[in-house]
Design a protein that fits this description.
It is built from 60 helices and four strands. By secondary structure, it is an all-alpha fold. Helix 17 packs across helix 54. It comes from Actinidia rufa.
């Protein structure tokens, strides 16, 4: 069509429009006539030329209402392209909106009607021409640097620019544009207002109505912005802009946040709130609605939402939902390892673990509490018949159940109720409310304890606590009978044989009493159905209160010997009773103080579960007595309390006591209390007081020193001290670390406001005596020994000077310990380790000479040992004489055992000694028991997949041990296995085990690592029930942990479950990073095995019908997903227990990223069941990673560990973003291929995955993505 013809045509259109307007013609008739004329002239419809003509007339020569009506009808009749019209109006109307508010309002009405209808417009025959015209109007290619004028790209740019124009216009209207970094908008630079002010066809003046309309327009513009983010299609188009126009989006989002925070128009809107607007426009918002979740997710949610996780909580076998609580079981069982003393409270750890599992599994607190109780009860049942030896026994288990678990639940309940009471604390008149507000968690506790009564097998009390359980039941019976006897403690000193009925108490009665004592339960529990059977109708005659007991003490009875014996053997039942004893220990006579110390370290410490947390704190405080105000002596004030302190030290030296202190998190404070005692008494010369009483400084020192050494890992194998490949946890347990934790806790105590809830369960006497920090430099003698200890481990001894004080002490010790050898022969003073010759035979009284401070003696001990081994090597000492002399040395100063352990451990590692032949002549022979032990080892390891090599002992190859190890073993077997020497064996035992782990078989060799690997595999297969082993045929917690190490079955030792074995050896594994990688691989393999054999083959045919379009039905998917979840839970638990926070951080930052980018196809693949394996592996990895993180960092911000969560997770997500953002994968794929894949995903109802794929495919695929979104309207 020629130019003149076109001019004639469009002039005719103008005249037709003017005529229709002047006579007030029908807009519909005008539209029909105009459409016919354009068709006759061969103009393609919709016409961009007509759109330009009509908009140019309105803006602003023909800005009258009827002109807008004509334009609206033209849009409805599709003779003009809506997007083109909106583009033209945007550049004309938005910049002049203040002078033409009515036009701006009409523009936005058109935008609401036609701005979201992309599908109909994309089907126009001249679609590409329309989009090019839009680009010419809005300059989208230029502004957004689009590579081409592809229609799909221009649609994204169109939607983005329209929203951005409205945003900047709204900011400008409210005076907020000046707050942007640019101070102006790129979009509001159209025609100047002053030039068009005269074209006010509506006669719009700056009146109150005018300003009101402007404000209404601003509100409407903000609401339209929200609509763009709400609408199904436009929200996804804007998502593409967010993913692929990042620099522009960053500027846009800055403006958007400014609007959200400061806009009065947004706050005045009735359609959208600032909070909703912020959520809609957030970068973290899920683009797809819940209705559009992927089909696999719908199946996951449908399957996992059914059924209570506690429905089978009491089952010890089978992969029931109760297996999801196995982190509780594993943690509790791991705390039973006597070789590990924790610096943090088990209450704190268990509280965080419970909160993590409750949050991740989205379950009720009733189920969570029930899972906790059952896990702790299972622990007690595994240890109901404990083995002998220096290992934690039943008392530690009962502490975990009745004290630690109860306190963890106390904190969880208190956390909720503290928040509720803070809210209810003030009325409208700001008056404090006195009534305590109970929370739902307290009611959930009640429900869990009522439900616990259904698990009778777990509630059977071990023999040592049957009488205590019966007393708890009797107390309830008395309450129900309404009988009152004095103070109500008539059970003091009374035999249950006198009760008129059978009490039949169980572990639930003890749990309820523990909860009542901590005020999270009341005596209404006694009214529960079947809680007790029967009532007491009369008081037994023997309950006359004649027997001394705690009630007598409270009434003021003196501490007579019978009273002391009774209180030592009977635990206190209330805080008031234990505080009474503490007051006696602080302010009474010396004899009464010693009696009070015995009572505190008696049954109240071991089995006073209701007040145990107070007892450990009070004992720790008593070990750090403050300097009396009137004290003026030159010596330490601790010396006058020598007998009292010694009673305390001996009283808490057993392994169960140390574990109880550890479980309550008192180890750092206890270490801080022991170090001054060691410093003072180790510097004293033994002497006699004027009263004739001898101060046994060596005994006090040895008791304190050996106790201190048990609190840190001094027994670590020497290799761990000279190589960098050390376990992330455990290596922290050094004296410096314990003091650091202690100082941190005290600083927190001083600086942090008191937690009113937690302070309620702490005795008023438990505040620390001093809050000043202490360091190793505070104790020069201890620091000197510690430095020598490290040097002894790292290098051969040197530096003993002839005639020095140390040299003289060495001579004295050698003369004392090896006196038979020294008679008539040359002395044993070392000459091969850098020392000079001896000064000659010792003639003075050895006992008088060795009345020296313990620190001086300890300094000489390494040289004594060096001389003894040198003498043995030269044939001047026989093995028996060597061991006897070392035993004499240890008897003289038990603290020297620590030096013996470290010295001989270092000598084993150096490997310079010939092996010792355990032939029964020179060294003890194991021949009598070796074959039996070998069989027992094989029996214990049965079913774990660990192959035990035969010892092949006898004939010409007798059993051998490294010589220094033979010395240590021979020394240990000279001690009797009783409570008097238990604390010494506990000092040596863990070191001996660690040392043996580094020696050749049969000393328990490199096998620790090999065992751990195979045990890991066995842990997964047994827990999931994936093998046919008799101990794990059904899977579940029972298969994983079994019955512990006790001999519960006929025939003595029975196979031990793999979980128990792993928990006992994992601390000997030095390459924990490898173990983490192994756990990830085993998890992936387990998923494949679950899918292939998760259900019996004969049932598979019945499960083919798919409820949600999957290969298997809901029943099989439910079973598979449950096992996958259990496998991931097991993996996360093992990672966390093996290495704690450090290993979890390494997992997230290193192991998982490395695993993702590695090729595992050959390892893990080999067939898939309809995509099930890949999908469940993704689910397993996600659950595994989330659970590991929550175990380490918790689910809230209250713990110090949570501060690291943001950094570590941020690092991991940075990796995911860089590895999976499509730069190296999706962006290299042809756009047509991506589009076909996207269409396929949409057809499979995987719209979210399709959008995510296009979102990371770059600008090149953005157009195809936009067209697919418009076409499919997903």
């Amino acid at each position: 069509m020629s130019v003149s013809v076109q001019r004639t045509l469009w002039d005719g259109v103008i005249e037709m429009t003017k005529s229709a307007q002047e006579r007030g013609g029908d807009p519909v008739l005008w539209t029909i006539q105009l459409s016919s004329a354009l068709s006759a002239a061969g103009v393609p419809i919709p016409s961009t030329e007509l759109a330009e003509l009509l908009v140019s007339q309105i803006c602003w020569s023909n800005n009258v209402p009827i002109a807008w009506k004509f334009l609206e009808k033209a849009l409805m009749m599709k003779i003009v392209p809506p997007m083109h019209v909106l583009a033209l109006l945007s550049v004309s109307v938005i910049p002049t909106r203040r002078f033409h508010p009515a036009a701006y309002r009409l523009y936005m009405e058109l935008l609401k009607r036609h701005g979201f209808l992309f599908a109909s417009q994309s089907n126009c025959p001249n679609y590409e021409k329309i989009m090019k015209s839009i680009d010419e109007v809005l300059h989208l290619s230029q502004i957004f640097s689009l590579p081409t004028s592809e229609p799909g790209l221009l649609i994204v740019g169109f939607a983005f620019s329209i929203v951005w124009r409205l945003l900047d216009a709204s900011l400008d209207d409210e005076g907020l544009l000046e707050l942007t970094p640019e101070k102006k908008s790129r979009w509001l630079t159209g025609r100047q207002d002053m030039e068009i002010d005269s074209h006010d066809s509506f006669n719009e003046k700056r009146t109150g109505r005018h300003e009101g309309l402007c404000k209404i327009n601003t509100v409407m513009a903000v609401e339209i912005i929200g609509e763009f983010f709400k609408h199904k299609v436009t929200s996804r188009i804007l998502y593409l802009a967010r993913q692929n126009m990042r620099s522009h989006w960053a500027c846009f989002i800055q403006h958007l946040r400014l609007l959200t925070e400061h806009s009065s128009a947004l706050r005045s809107s009735k359609d959208i709130t600032p909070e909703a607007f912020l959520q809609l426009t957030s970068d973290t918002r899920e683009v797809l609605s819940r209705k559009c979740k992927t089909s696999s997710q719908k199946q996951f949610h449908a399957v996992m939402s059914s059924g209570s996780l506690a429905s089978s909580a009491g089952q010890c076998h089978g992969t029931s939902r109760s297996s999801l609580w196995l982190p509780f079981d594993l943690f509790l069982e791991d705390t039973m390892d006597g070789s590990q003393v924790a610096a943090t409270s088990a209450v704190e750890v268990l509280t965080g673990l419970a909160k993590a599992l409750q949050a991740v599994n989205q379950i009720t607190w009733q189920d969570t509490f029930l899972g906790l109780w059952i896990a702790a009860l299972r622990l007690v049942q595994r240890e109901r018949d404990p083995s002998e030896g220096p290992v934690p026994r039943l008392d530690t288990c009962l502490c975990l159940l009745l004290s630690v678990t109860t306190l963890a639940i106390f904190d969880i309940i208190g956390e909720e109720e503290a928040a509720l009471n803070n809210e209810a604390e003030c009325t409208t008149n700001c008056q404090r409310k006195e009534k305590h507000v109970s929370g739902k968690r307290r009611r959930d506790l009640v429900a869990s304890l009522q439900q616990l009564g259904d698990f009778e097998d777990l509630l059977a009390p071990p023999v040592p606590v049957i009488s205590v359980a019966n007393q708890a039941a009797a107390k309830a019976m008395v309450f129900l009978s309404g009988l009152t006897v004095g103070s109500g403690s008539f059970l003091d000193g009374m035999s249950l044989n006198d009760m008129p009925v059978n009490c039949s108490g169980n572990m639930r009665h003890l749990i309820v009493e523990a909860c009542i004592a901590r005020n999270i339960l009341d005596t209404s529990a006694y009214l529960w159905p079947d809680y007790v059977k029967g009532r007491i109708n009369q008081i037994p005659r023997s309950a006359s209160g004649q027997m001394p007991g705690w009630s007598s003490l409270i009434k003021g009875s003196p501490l007579t010997p019978p009273m002391v014996n009774a209180l030592v053997s009977t635990p206190a039942s209330s805080l008031a009773e234990i505080e009474k004893i503490y007051q006696i220990a602080v302010s009474s006579s010396d004899d009464e103080k010693i009696s009070a110390a015995k009572i505190l370290c008696g049954a109240s410490l071991i089995r006073g579960w209701n007040i145990q947390e107070h007892t450990v704190l009070l004992i720790t405080k008593l070990l750090s007595p403050p300097v009396p105000v009137d004290y003026s002596g030159s010596e330490s004030h601790l010396i006058r309390d020598t007998p009292f302190l010694n009673v305390l030290l001996v009283g808490i030296s057993s392994i169960d006591c140390i574990q109880i202190f550890s479980l309550h998190g008192v180890v750092p404070a206890l270490a801080g209390a022991l170090m001054p005692i060691c410093e003072v008494f180790g510097s004293m010369v033994p002497r006699t007081l004027p009263t004739g009483e001898e101060i046994s400084a060596h005994a006090v020192f040895s008791n304190a020193f050996t106790l201190l050494l048990k609190l840190w890992r001094f027994d670590r194998p020497p290799l761990d001290h000279v190589t960098g490949d050390v376990a992330p946890v455990g290596s922290q347990l050094t004296p410096e670390y314990l003091l650091l934790v202690r100082n941190s806790q005290l600083a927190s105590y001083v600086n942090t406001p008191r937690d009113q809830h937690k302070s309620k369960r702490v005795s008023k006497y438990c505040s620390p005596s001093s809050t000043e920090p202490i360091f190793m430099d505070t104790f020069p003698k201890l620091k000197g020994w510690y430095r020598q200890h490290q040097e002894c481990i790292a290098a051969i001894l040197s530096g003993l000077k002839h005639g020095s004080p140390v040299h003289q002490i060495v001579d004295g010790l050698l003369s004392m310990t090896f006196r038979k050898v020294n008679r008539g022969s040359q002395p044993l003073t070392p000459t091969t380790s850098g020392s000079s010759n001896s000064s000659g035979p010792v003639t003075e009284d050895v006992s008088l000479q060795l009345k020296l401070p313990a620190w001086d003696i300890l300094e000489a001990v390494p040289f004594v040992l060096d001389a003894a081994l040198t003498a043995y090597a030269h044939g001047r000492l026989s093995p028996r004489e060597l061991v006897t002399g070392l035993k004499d040395l240890a008897d003289f100063l038990p603290a020297s055992l620590a030096t013996l352990v470290s010295y001989f451990s270092a000598e084993v590692t150096r490997g310079i000694w010939k092996p010792a032949f355990m032939n029964g002549t020179d060294w003890p022979s194991p021949a009598a028991n070796l074959a039996i032990v070998e069989q027992q080892i094989k029996k214990i390891l049965a079913g774990t997949g660990v192959d035990v090599p035969s010892l092949a002992v006898g004939g010409s190859a007798p059993a051998t041990l490294p010589f220094p190890l033979a010395v240590l073993v021979s020394l240990t077997i000279t001690y009797k296995l009783d409570r008097t020497t238990e604390h010494l064996l506990f000092l040596i035992g863990p070191a001996l085990i660690s040392l043996a782990a580094g020696c050749p078989w049969p000393c328990f060799p490199i096998m620790a690592s090999l065992w751990a690997q195979k045990l890991l595999r066995s842990c997964f297969t047994s827990t999931l029930g994936l093998n046919s082993s008799p101990i794990s045929s059904n899977g579940g917690v029972g298969a994983l942990l079994g019955h512990g190490f006790g001999s519960h079955f006929s025939g003595g030792i029975s196979p031990v479950a793999p979980g128990i074995l792993y928990l006992r050896v994992h601390r000997s594994v030095r390459n924990l990073m490898f173990m983490t990688e192994e756990i990830v691989v085993l998890l992936m393999r387990s998923v494949k095995e679950i899918v292939s054999c998760g259900l019996p083959t004969e049932k598979m045919d019945k499960l083919k019908t798919a409820k949600y379009g999957m290969r298997y039905g809901q029943v099989s998917l439910s079973a598979a997903m449950l096992r996958v979840k259990i496998a991931a839970t097991l993996g996360a638990s093992l990672v966390w227990i093996s290495g704690g926070l450090s290993l979890v951080q390494s997992l997230i930052k290193e192991t998982l990223p490395s695993w993702f980018i590695s090729d595992h196809k050959s390892e893990l693949d080999g067939g898939d069941s309809g995509g099930m394996v890949a999908m469940l592996r993704g689910y397993a990895l996600a659950y595994f990673a989330v659970l590991s993180g929550t175990f380490a960092w918790g689910v809230d911000s209250s713990s110090p560990a949570s501060m690291r969560r943001k950094k570590v997770i941020g690092t991991h997500l940075d990796f995911l973003a860089s590895a999976l953002d499509g730069k190296n994968i999706a962006r290299e794929v042809d756009v047509d291929v991506l589009k076909r894949v996207g269409k396929g995903l949409v057809q499979w109802n995987e719209e979210e995955l399709a959008l995510a794929l296009f979102g990371v495919s770059g600008v090149g695929a953005m157009g195809a993505a936009a067209e697919l979104i418009i076409e499919s309207e997903f």
